[in-house]
Amino acid sequence: MAEDIINRVANSKLKVIDLEDYYPNGRRVLFDIKNWLLEGLVLRESDFRTSVKEHNWAQYKDCYVALYCSTDAIVPDWAYMLISLELEEFSKLTAIGTLDHLESIIYTKIISDLDVSIYKDMPVIIKGCSHKPVPTNALVLLSQKLKPVAKSIMFGEACSAVPLFKRKK
To answer: Which range of residues forms the domain containing residue 63?
Structure first.
């Protein structure tokens, strides 16, 4: 007689958090301002302001935008601020830096708003593998947020989780 296969993980109190489930939809855009600089290096205020004014900002509707300069130009802070104010009406989020930095900022907000009270006194696994760009910083922030409430924190998959934290009794 064959015995039924029992999924012990599904029947346990173990809670799995997959940050990929929280990945927000929206195109990610890397916006290089070098083309608005004289020879890619010098910001001339009047020309820069004209470029900002004439640019079609509506194309960034519902996008996440990372502002950067790919040259070694010294860009004053106000230049990024000016662009961000134009994008504010259209983009979901604007930040300065790389796309990786942008993802980290997106997830910082998500984790900050995450209600972890449902994990009180529970063993938790933070899922490791994902197909979407979940930054390592997000895993660190989530583990720190869970520590005060979770009974234990592990990383990986239920079949091969790495223990990270276990609350002392």
So the answer is: 28-91
